[in-house]
Structures are given as structure tokens and as C-alpha cells.
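Could you show me some protein's one-letter sequence and the numbers that encode its backbone in two labelled lines?

___
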Amino acid sequence: MMLPTLSSTLLVLLGAAATSRAVAIDTTNTADLAARDGPTDLLEGYEVVGELTWIGSVEEGGPEYTFTGNAESILKEILALNPNYAPALEDPPPAENSTNVLAERSKGNIYCNFGGNGEIEVGRIEKEERYLRSLGTSKCHVGAGPGKCVRVSCSYNAGVWLCNDNKYAVSPRCTSLADYVRNIINRCQRHLYAPCWWNEGKTCTTVDEWRVRGQQFDSDGYNVIIGSSKC
């Protein structure tokens, strides 16, 4: 069945921290996720146990729904119920050169070069950020840990994970997770330029792009990771 057309509000949207250890994601626990994510380096005690659970309303004052999947698939389910869905939003985090971001850096809760199978193009992760932010201020849920992760979003090899270090489940706002994705991009992105990049030793290609990989912790005992994944 064809999904309803996105509302104009959503089209604009889609167009447009903690004391735990840094980890890399394991995807060998669930066969389906393993098939898509592939093998990764694992810090003992962490595993991916499924995909994101979203809990929220598809319209103001409406009943609460629960969907499980990645951010994009959850958004499609929301739109199937309400084609005019407009998420409740918060202001995104400030730009890289702002004093607030510099203050965030001083907390030391963002770690670069952790997560997934490696770096990913910034533009691809930004797409996942937009899908995540489109879920609004509703709850993005991960079950009890410690060391349990869910895959929040993944397409074109760009992955986002939510990991829980608590012995109980947590349900932060989806927009907060999107803010953490943005914070990691602001802190960890690097410019990669090579006039002749040998692709598997066969062809010489010019590479000029921004890449990113990293992790941010929250004081409530959960963390967000972005990096490369097979999807």
C-alpha cells in the first residue's frame, strides 16, 4: 500500500552527556542485525539486541502508540496513521563555533573514532539525524542493560545506535538523541582529501569529503553512537 505524502512541515524538516566507557558496537547477537551490520570490534559486555522502540502520539492530544524499527520505518508508520503529522520539536544544538558547543566539549563526554565499522560521510549521517529528529519529543526507548544497544537508524551504510548502561530501561526524547548525533558531528567530523585514492587498488579516484565517527554519553547512563554499518 502506498504511503501518504509527507506534510509540508515534515518535508521542511527532512530537507533541512556521562561516565561510561567508549565502545564499539557488536551485532552478532541477533542474526538479522548481524546480516546487515556485519562483524565489528566489540568491547566486552556490549551487544545490539534489536531496533528502536518509539512511544508517542501521532497527533496532539491523541492516543499513545508504540512502534519498533528504525527511525525511517517508524516515521512511515506514523504517517500511515496521520498524513498531516507534525512532530513537536526543540531547537537543534548550536553551530560548531558557538560558546555553548565549546562548553559542551569541556565536559569530555564526546569520544571520536568509536562505533560501528569505521567513519561515514557526514551527509549520510545528517540524513539519519533528520529522520530521528522527525520523531519529535516523543520517547525513544531502549530496554534494561547494562551494555544493551538498539539500532536507531541505518541506511546507505550510516548507522546510529542507542546504548544503555543502566540496569533499567530508559526512554529519552528522540530529539535529544538527534541533538547528540549533531554534537558528535560538530566535534568529530574531519575533512578527507586525496587527489588519487586507490579504490581496492584498481582505480584512482579523487576524494574530497567530510567523515565522522563517534559517541556521546548522557549523565542518565545512556549513550549515542554513530558510524559505518552494513545497511
